[in-house]
Write a structure and sequence with these properties.
The protein is α/β, with parallel strands linked by helices. Strand 3 and strand 4 form a beta hairpin. It is globular, with a radius of gyration of 18 Å. The mean pLDDT is 80.
Length: 203
């Protein structure tokens, strides 16, 4: 949508690929439920824009049971100057959604109000996890980050979140922010709970 004012041949080619994918997956349906955990399972990852003045795109997905119930991929409101900073912003954006789900679960009686278990948030950046879980770690890499984003550090200190490292190839949120190989894309599609009566891997 951001290129509608001045599209070119590359964008037209991308549109055709989108319609090809939609045609190949028209029978897919999002499944929910199953025997998975009742507490939220969270994955987040950004697509870092390494060009000046270009904003990164964070993505996240939240699972309840064996299906995705919330997901997002939208451009950040600030420019990240490193992949670590982009990961930090992605975790903060995802954390806000997780807090809402935690409050909802508490109101529904599915999560205790007093001393609930922390929500595991999976990321593929050990540096970002260190930045999120070490409140006193200030360096040239992070001292410029706006303080309004640091609430997630306090939330981690209060045990609302635990940040867990996963390999990049296993990060389900990658499907929202990156162009993936067909096999990896198909794997993440299945993990999200998207299924077809006759599953096929789109080419």
């Amino acid at each position: 949508a951001q290129f509608m004012s001045n599209p070119n041949r590359m964008h037209w080619k991308a549109i055709k690929r989108i319609f090809q994918y939609l045609k190949a997956t028209r029978n897919y349906a999002l499944t929910v439920g199953g025997d998975g955990p009742t507490e939220p399972e969270v994955w987040c990852d950004p697509a870092y824009a390494d060009q000046p003045k270009v904003k990164s795109t964070p993505g996240y997905c939240i699972f309840i049971g064996q299906g995705a119930v919330s997901w997002s991929a939208k451009k950040q409101s600030v420019v990240a100057v490193s992949t670590t900073e982009a990961e930090f912003y992605a975790a903060e954006l995802c954390g806000r959604e997780v807090v809402w789900f935690r409050h909802l679960f508490q109101e529904l009686g599915l999560m205790p109000i007093r001393d609930p278990e922390p929500t595991v948030q999976r990321m593929d950046s050990t540096t970002a996890i260190s930045l999120l879980t070490t409140p006193d770690e200030i360096s040239n890499r992070n001292k410029h980050i706006d303080v309004s984003y640091y609430w997630i550090r306090e939330a981690a200190r209060q045990k609302k979140f635990i940040f867990e490292h996963v390999p990049g190839s296993d990060n389900v949120a990658d499907i929202f922010t990156k162009a993936l190989a067909p096999v990896v894309h198909a794997k993440h599609t299945v993990t999200l709970g998207l299924a077809s009566p006759t599953p096929t891997v789109p080419r």
